[in-house]
Amino acid sequence: HAMPDLIRALPKAELHLHIEGSLEPELMFRLAKKNNVAIPYDSIEDVRRAYNFSNLQSFLDIYYAGANVLQTQDDFYDLTWAYIEKCLENNIVHTEIFFDPQTHTERGVPFSAVIGGIKAALADAHSQHGITSCIIMCFLRHLSEADAFATLEEALPYKDDIIGVGLDSSEVGNPPSKFAAVFKAAAEHGFKLVAHAGEEADFSYINEALDLLNIHRIDHGVQSIHSDTLMLRLKDTQMPLTVCPNSNIELRVFDHYDQHNIKDLLDYGLNVSVHSDDPAYFKGYLNQNFTNLCDHLPLSADDVVTLVKNGFRSAFIDDAQKAAYL
Ligand code: ADE
Ligand code: ZN
């Protein structure tokens, strides 16, 4: 099995990973018990049975319920450290993790506990294992822009710990235009900008994210294939697309891996890379995303290397660090 060996052997960059989406059922149960939080499952098997999604929203409902067990700074440390152990298994040497502050601050968990726990685990990952990382704060698009502005204000004391802002949650009906002003404000504060666009919603959301939010990367973006104009634009600008194959299958964006369009996007010349989104919910971490693609699409070894290198090209790291992996 040359391909799995190659995938395992390549150092990789993770650019699209929701830390709350790395909460494994075992840790969910342990924290539920410790914090006295009710969860609607009797057993680990019961949880895994519930992870059968029909679309993005059916996943989000379960994902936000799971996040309720996260209460203290230590919980966020343990969550992040468990993910770092997965980075070691998957040869991820650089990771840019999303977190959703509003999911926690809405429940009364202080912003400082969330960022403090994540940051401490990432610092240990660097000192103990040399893993580099940064943190991206996402606004929940099902909430208002005023809520996003309040969250941006709350984040300012931690500005040095947060490299950028993103946009996630329920996409259809919550277009990028709803957040144009808060993204402009975030840019003025020096944050880098990314946004989920064209995951479930059509390609017009990708155009809007480019035109109105001025993003540096598109998260998902797989619906771009339905617009020739947009495809040309993405190719010309080499705009990064952080594609998450397992997620797209589990959330029924594509029926099966052999229907996934990542090979078409790559062959067209787009800057696409592979990431894991919410690996505890979508049946596997980064290497598994690659092997699932390789099992069902005619990806060559060169294609795999290009996808991995694109991850480093698109990362928020300096040129010296990029050069080490390109
Ligand atoms: N939050 C966590 N995962 C997400 C996804 N795939 N799309 C939108 N919001 C998310
Ligand atoms: Zn995502």
UniProtKB/TrEMBL annotation:
This protein's UniProt keywords: Hydrolase, Metal-binding, Nucleotide metabolism, Zinc
Catalytic reaction(s) noted: adenine + H2O + H(+) = hypoxanthine + NH4(+)
Entry's EC annotation: 3.5.4.2
Gene3D superfamilies for this protein: Metal-dependent hydrolases (3.20.20.140)
Enzyme class name: hydrolase
Cofactors: Zn(2+)
All copies of domain Adenosine deaminase, residue ranges: 11-326
Marked site: Important for catalytic activity: H220
Chain residues that bind Zn(2+): H16, H18, H196, D277
Cofactor annotation remark: Binds 1 zinc ion per subunit.
Binding site for substrate: D278
Pfam families the UniProt entry points to: A_deaminase
Active-site residue numbers: E199 (proton donor)
InterPro entries registered for this protein in UniProt: A_deaminase_dom, ADE, Ado/ade_deaminase, Metal_Hydrolase
Function: Catalyzes the hydrolytic deamination of adenine to hypoxanthine. Plays an important role in the purine salvage pathway and in nitrogen catabolism.
PANTHER family hit by this protein: ADENINE DEAMINASE
HAMAP family: Adenine_deaminase
Protein family (similarity comment): Belongs to the metallo-dependent hydrolases superfamily. Adenosine and AMP deaminases family. Adenine deaminase type 2 subfamily.
Protein name, as recorded: Adenine deaminase
Biological source species: Psychrobacter aestuarii
